[in-house]
Design a protein that fits this description.
Layout: H1 3-26, H2 29-45, H3 47-58, H4 62-84, E1 91-94, E2 108-114, E3 118-121, H5 135-143, E4 147-150, H6 156-172, E5 180-183, H7 188-195, E6 202-206, H8 209-221, E7 228-231, E8 237-240, H9 242-261, E9 273-277, H10 280-293, H11 304-318, E10 322-326, E11 336-341, H12 342-347, E12 359-365, H13 368-378, E13 381-387, H14 394-406, E14 407-411, E15 451-457
C-alpha cells in the first residue's frame, strides 16, 4: 500500500468514525452492552478457525491462544457489566447554596462525556486481547467512543478475520459501521498520520518504547494535542529476600523460570531484573534458577524483527554483565541469565536495557538500602515484585514505598506475568513504562481514559443526563 493510499484509507476510516460518534455517545447502556456481548459471542463462535489463523501467524500455540480468546470475551462482557453498574454514567451533584462565596454557589453537576473517535494500535504479543477486539477497543466502545484500529503487521490475516466478524455484528444490530474500522498494512508513517489526524480524539498504544515514544511526540505536536495512552515497555524487577528463599527457594526458582520463559518472554510483565542480597541463600537460588531453566525450550518469537531486537538487547546487556547461564536453543532462542552488582547496575544505563524475550539480569546488592537504590535507578516499570517483605517492619515499609514509587503494580506473592482483568487492576507505571501512569490499559478503570469530565452549572434536568 502506498503512502497516499494508506492516508486515503485512514481518512475514510476516521470519517466513518466521526459520523458514528454522536449516535454512539448518546447510545443507551442497553445498546452498548448488547454490542459488547454480541462481539464476545461472535469471537467465541468462531474460536477454532480464528485460533488456527493466529497460531500460523504468531507461533504462540493453541493452548495460549484459546486462553487469550477466553480473556478477550471475558473482558468484553466485563465492560458490559460495568456499564450496567453505572461505570460510564458517573455524576456528582452539588446543589445550589444561598449566600455569598465561598459558601454560596450555583447548582453544579459534574458528568462524564466521551472524547470521540479513538485510534488503537494493536500489540504484537497479544493477537486477541490487545488487538482488534482487545481491551483498548472494548473500553473505548464502553465509554461511548468509536474506534479506528491500526492492525499489527505480525497478525494481518487474523486482524481482518476478527474485524469482519465485528463488522457483521455491528451491522446486524443496526448500528453504524463506523463504530469499528480497521486500517491494514499501514507503515510507520501512516501510523503517524493516524495519530495526527485532526478528527482523532485520543490514542491507545501498546508496543515498543521507540515506536510509542515517536507516536507520543506526534500526538503532542498536533495543533491541538490529544491524550496518548501508551504502554511502552518494562523490566519488572523482582526482589527475592533471604527469608523467602530460605523458606522455599526451589519452588520459587521453578516458578520464576516459568515466568521468564512464558510466551518466549514476550510479555510486557516478564521479570527482567532479579534483585538479591549477598549471601548463601541467594547463591543457592541462582543455581536453582539456572537448573530450572535448563530443560525449558521456547517457541519461535512473534516476528523476525522481534528476534533481532532480543539478540541486540542481550548483546548490550552481555557486554556489561557476566553471562552465567545459556540454555538450549530450539525453535526459539535459548533462555539466558546475566549477572552484575548493584553499584554497576545503578551507574550503567546499558544494564537497564529491556530484553524482550526469555532472559533476565541478576543484580546482587549489599543491603536493603542498595536494593532501594536499584529500584530507583529503574525509574518506571509496570510491576515490582517483593518476595519476603511480609512482616510489618521499618525495612519492609521502606522497601514497599520504594517499589510503589516506580511501579503500577506491586506483588508480594507470585510472579508478574498474568494480569487479572478486574476493577482493582493497574496496568501502567511511571515513564518509561507508560505515558500516562495515572491510567490503566487493563481492567475496568481503562474506560476512564476515554471520558472527559464536564461541569454543568445551573443546567436543566434534561442536560444532566
Amino acid at each position: 500500500m502506498t503512502q497516499l493510499n494508506a492516508q486515503q484509507t485512514i481518512d475514510h476510516a476516521v470519517a466513518s468514525a466521526v459520523q458514528a460518534a454522536p449516535l454512539w455517545a448518546k447510545a443507551s447502556v442497553e445498546v452498548r452492552t448488547r454490542l459488547l456481548r454480541g462481539l464476545a459471542q461472535a469471537l467465541e463462535a468462531h474460536q477454532a478457525d480464528l485460533v488456527a489463523i493466529a497460531d500460523k501467524e504468531s507461533h504462540l500455540g493453541a493452548g495460549r491462544l484459546n486462553g487469550e480468546v477466553a480473556r478477550t470475551g471475558f473482558q468484553l462482557r466485563g465492560f458490559a457489566e460495568q456499564l450496567e453498574n453505572g461505570a460510564a454514567q458517573g455524576k456528582v451533584v452539588d446543589e445550589a447554596a444561598a449566600g455569598a462565596p465561598p459558601v454560596g454557589r450555583p447548582q453544579l453537576t459534574r458528568v462524564q462525556r466521551p472524547l470521540g473517535p479513538v485510534a488503537t494500535f494493536s500489540a504484537s504479543n497479544f493477537p486477541f486481547a490487545f488487538s482488534v477486539l482487545g481491551g483498548d477497543t472494548a473500553s473505548a466502545l464502553a465509554a461511548g467512543c468509536p474506534v479506528v484500529v491500526k492492525a499489527h503487521s505480525g497478525h494481518p490475516k487474523l486482524s481482518v478475520a476478527v474485524y469482519e466478524l465485528a463488522r457483521q455484528v455491528v451491522v446486524a444490530q443496526g448500528l453504524p459501521e463506523g463504530l469499528i474500522t480497521l486500517v491494514e498494512g499501514a507503515s510507520r508513517g501512516a501510523g503517524g498520520y493516524l495519530v495526527q489526524h485532526p478528527d482523532i480524539a485520543a490514542v491507545a498504544f501498546t508496543g515498543s518504547y521507540q515506536g510509542g515514544t515517536a507516536l507520543w511526540k506526534l500526538a503532542n505536536e498536533r495543533p491541538r494535542p490529544i491524550p496518548f495512552f501508551g504502554e511502552l515497555g518494562s523490566i519488572n524487577p523482582l526482589v527475592a529476600l533471604p527469608a523467602a528463599l530460605q523458606a522455599d527457594s526451589q519452588n520459587l526458582a521453578n516458578t520464576l523460570a516459568g515466568s521468564i520463559t512464558l510466551g518466549c518472554g514476550q510479555f510486557c510483565t516478564s521479570p527482567g531484573v532479579i534483585v538479591l542480597l549477598e549471601g548463601e541463600a541467594s547463591e543457592r537460588f541462582v543455581e536453582q534458577l539456572g537448573a530450572a531453566l535448563e530443560p525449558l525450550l521456547t517457541h519461535a518469537m512473534l516476528t523476525p524483527s522481534m528476534r533481532d531486537g532480543f539478540e541486540r538487547a542481550t548483546s548490550v546487556v552481555g557486554a556489561h554483565a557476566e553471562a552465567i547461564f545459556t540454555g538450549t536453543e530450539g525453535v526459539g532462542p535459548a533462555p539466558r541469565l546475566y549477572r552484575t552488582d548493584a553499584t554497576s547496575f545503578i551507574a550503567n544505563a546499558h544494564l537497564r536495557e529491556e530484553m524482550f524475550g526469555p532472559a533476565a539480569l541478576v543484580v546482587t546488592a549489599s543491603d536493603l538500602r542498595q536494593v532501594e537504590q536499584v529500584l530507583a535507578a529503574i525509574g518506571g516499570t509496570l510491576t515490582a515484585t517483593l518476595w519476603g517483605a511480609d512482616d510489618d517492619t521499618a525495612d519492609n515499609r521502606s522497601l514497599v514505598h520504594a517499589a510503589e514509587q516506580i511501579a503500577g503494580r506491586v506483588l508480594f506473592k507470585g510472579v508478574p506475568t498474568g494480569v487479572a482483568v478486574c476493577s482493582a487492576q493497574q496496568h501502567g507505571g511511571p515513564w518509561p513504562a507508560s505515558t500516562a501512569p495515572q491510567t490503566t490499559s487493563v481492567g475496568y478503570a481503562a474506560l476512564e481514559r476515554f471520558l472527559r469530565p464536564v461541569a454543568l452549572q445551573d443546567a436543566p434536568t434534561w442536560a444532566q443526563k
